[in-house]
Amino acid sequence: MKIIGFIYRNGGAEMVLKGDSCLLNGRKPFFVPECSQEIGVTPCMILRVSRLGKEIAPKFASRYYDAVAPGEDFIAMDKARELAAAGKPWTPAIAFDYSLAIGEWMDKGDRLKVIGDRLLMSPEEAIEQASKVMTIRQGDLIYIQAKQAPRLVQKEEIITVEVDGEEKLYCKIK
User: Taking the model in full, what pTM does it have?
Assistant: First the structure.
């Protein structure tokens, strides 16, 4: 399984990869990693890929995912600044264990209820862009951040996402 992300960086979208150890689900708490004391979070929408595809045209992209979930993407802000200043990739700042909280899966028709039109790109554009670079497979996840800078989180803070009055994501910061 691959986790392909589109993050907001330098005023635009940048594609990143995360390992499966980055997933945080099941209402588990997020523990601030020892490598950082300044954690930011950005809301995102996560797509569950449902079939194999390569170089998918946007008009067919909706056929390649079957569900969406709200998410929160964590970033080690202090580490990101350090890496950016050195001209190095951000991977250590964004792809650490449990850095992507994932909520409950919902029908893909509910995607506008998850995060609305605040995404960096549409799900169809994300699938098109990801499939230009690599083959996407059933079970892969693609996440798209909102068009906003990360906000800092504090220990003991609780992050929730509600859709139609139902809690779909819960994460306590420890």
Answer: 0.94
Map out the domains of the chain with their CATH numbers: 3-172 (3.90.850.10)
Spatial CB neighbours of 112, under 8 Å, sequence gap ≥ 6: none
Over residues 121-165, the pLDDT tens digits come to 999 999 999 999 999 999 999 999 999 889 999 999 999 999 889
Residue-wise pLDDT for 98-125, tens only, equals 999 999 999 988 777 777 678 999 999 9
> Cα-atom radius of gyration of the chain, to the nearest Å?
15
Q: Is the dihedral of CA 44, 27, 161, 103 positive or negative?
A: positive
Task: Report d(CA 77, CA 88) in Å as an integer.
Answer: 14
**Residue 65 CB contacts under 8 Å (≥ 6 apart), including other chains:** 47, 48, 49, 50, 108, 123, 127, 142
> Torsion over CA of 128, 134, 138 and 140, rounded to 10 degrees?
-90
Beta bridge partners of 161: 169
Q: How many CB atoms lie within 10 A of CB 109?
A: 9
Angle at 60 between CA 168 and CA 55, to 5 degrees: 105
